[in-house]
Amino acid sequence: MTKIVEATAFLVDVEVETERTDAVQAFIKQETVFVELTTDDANTGIGYSYTIGTGGKAVLAMLREHLLPRLRGEDARSVEHLWHALFASTRATSVGAITSLALAAVDTALWDLRCRRAGEPLWRLAGGFSRRVPLYDTEGGWLNLSTEDLVSGALASQAAGWSGVKLKVGKPRIEQDVERLRAVRDAVGPGLDIMVDANQSMTHAEARRRAAAFEPIGLAWFEEPLPADDIEGHAALSRSTSIPIAVGESLYSAAHFREYLARGAASIVQVDVARIGGITPWLKVAHLAETFNVHVCPHFLMELHVSLVAAVPNGRYVEHIPQLRAITHGGLRIEDAHAVAPDVPGLGISWNPDAMDDRRVA
Ligand SMILES: [Mg+2]
């Protein structure tokens, strides 16, 4: 038995590095919720979760008042048992975003502990498929950027050897979206993946119209065209367009991915390790997608997702959005236009405790 003797949580606000807007929202700040676990053999694990600006204190309260007291005295090695015991203790608030985000902070701390005690990096202990994974850039594709900025960002990514760029869509008029996408495609030529992301902003009719207008541009995927709870809408849209439909960043239960996949409503799965409730359910979604011959291209959190994409055979892309530089040392390792999963025991994120203390709000 490796007994958990201490379990604490705290909240750190990390400022956004650049203005980031999409069709429905702005990224205000990263509310970063940390969990630190200590075991009776003097090991520690640090996990985390996040929001892009609302609800961080609700996640923290769920942890401090409900989940963490249940961990003390438990065996840290029994990660599946603990995930299910905690989930079962939250029936009044699950499935739900706040609960999933809180579970993720605990689960990632348990995986950090597991990897540290085993002396293995996450990417290997979680599966060990391929340490280097392709990157695509979102940081140059925000809706607030001008067409000129989109073009220069895409050209810079292409010059660096990256495989793709993602552009936000959902301007008021369809012609505005098309003009921006066409300018980028004309600048980069056919050899670069272009993804688009509508952030759930469209009606079904509008999504069909825009997909038809986007098709000649040659897109790698159309992300979150519709509200995330409209599975049938995504299935119908998938049948009506040749552009692969991508979903997942707004799903909080592994079973919801099963519904999307079984109904042919998603061709790319973007499971987010924080929103799904941690590494334990993330891996289940990735393996489920593999059985449907579907790639996993997780949402955001590149510092953690690099190890998970590297762990599984159907991991296709890591999304480049730097957001932890202010509170970490080192940052994401990029070599030959690929992200390289850390090879040190644990999650492989080098936290900066002083910088975290400076930004601690609760
Ligand atoms: Mg998105």
Any descriptors?
binds magnesium ion; TIM Barrel; 362 residues; 3-stranded antiparallel β-sheet; alpha/beta; Enolase-like, domain 1; 10-stranded mixed β-sheet
Describe it for me?
- This protein is of the alpha/beta class.
- It has two domains: 4-119 and 354-358, 2-Layer Sandwich (Enolase-like, domain 1); 124-351, TIM Barrel (Alpha-Beta Barrel), CATH 3.20.20.
- Helices cover 38% and strands 19% of the residues.
- The protein has twelve helices and 15 strands.
- Helix 2 runs antiparallel to helix 3, helix 5 (147-159) runs parallel beside helix 6 (174-188) and helix 9 (254-262) packs parallel to helix 10.
- The longest helix is centred in the first third of the chain and has 22 residues, at 97-118.
- 49% of the residues are buried.
- It binds magnesium ion.
- Residues 197, 199, 223-224, 249, 299 line the site of magnesium ion.
